Queue: 2 jobs
Job 1
Amino acid sequence: MSKVDQVMEEIMSKAKQVIKWINDWANLIGLIIAVIALIYTILPFYNDSGKVSNLDSSVKVTNFQEVNLCNGYLVNDPLSEVLTTTSLSDKEKDYLESKINCYRDQIQKNHNDAGAYTNIGEAERRLGNLAAASKAHQKALELKPDLPEAKIGLALIEQDMGNKMAANQAIQGVLAVHPNKAIAHFYQGTILYAQNQLKDATVAWQKAKELDPNLSKPVKTWKLPNIKHVLGWQKNEPSV
């Protein structure tokens, strides 16, 4: 083999090495681009997995550690706004929004959690979002048709909407099935009071207190002489 041939062979060998190096880098760059594209493709779905429907739209869920926000039924913790037109403070609104997010976190973990849905319904009602509240309670009843808290929630929504007859019928329907449910008698009293049926409201509150003497505790700050008298906050009776 002549020197020229050797030189040409070396050049061809070097050229092949360069081409291979270029191809390797091109493949690596292509792989990196593909990985980046895949990440950007998956990322929106990953973000969506942290969302759960609130029946009207999807809202991002925070993984709450404060489980106390989610405990129990919200309807069992009555607020004075049930009987007043006073707007909620920003702090109260933020608190309710936090509870809603906490309930959504529960639903994310268990899509059949009827209690979480009805709690969303009551929180939305207190925020004035009656359509969303009604849908949440209806969803709860789809999952658990005999859930009294959801039926109470729907009765309160009817009252908030000014549907007096529907509100009365709804709360009476709950009491027909659960005659010893103190909170149902309590809310019957609030509904009747809002309709200016003070005597009937007093009877309902008295029945609620008879069934659950501690029920008066959540409403000790209410500025309603009638209810304070019925539930035991007279001058000679210390508040609890």
Job 2
Amino acid sequence: MDGNLISERTLLTNFFRKKNKKCYKCTIREASVNYKIKSYFCVELETDFLYHRHMECNLNSIPISLNLCNEEYNLVGLIAFDHGSDMLHYYTFIRLNDGQWEELNNLKNNIICHSKGSKIKVRPALVFYKRKNIYKRNLLTY
């Protein structure tokens, strides 16, 4: 699955690239398409977790930054799923500024800290990014 996450970066970059498309009404004229991403965005990894229950990746293989629409976005967290006890259970990983991770699992009712280089395997469902330098801009454009 690690290779799929790298290709997600390429797919996102290509999707948000400025492009010209045929007008959807007349299909003759071309229209310029510009995308604008706000301060945060989420990537839903479309995977049938019941069918692909053994697909997983290393937590540190998820791209920590993406450059989309001439802006840099940094990984802030993800929601992963666990299928260990024949029930779907989701838990979260929060990426700290120093590259460490905090794992929050409501079934264990505690927070586990993971070092920057730990080899934790996860099955990501949602990945969250925020725009770099988000707080250095005017609050009206937040």
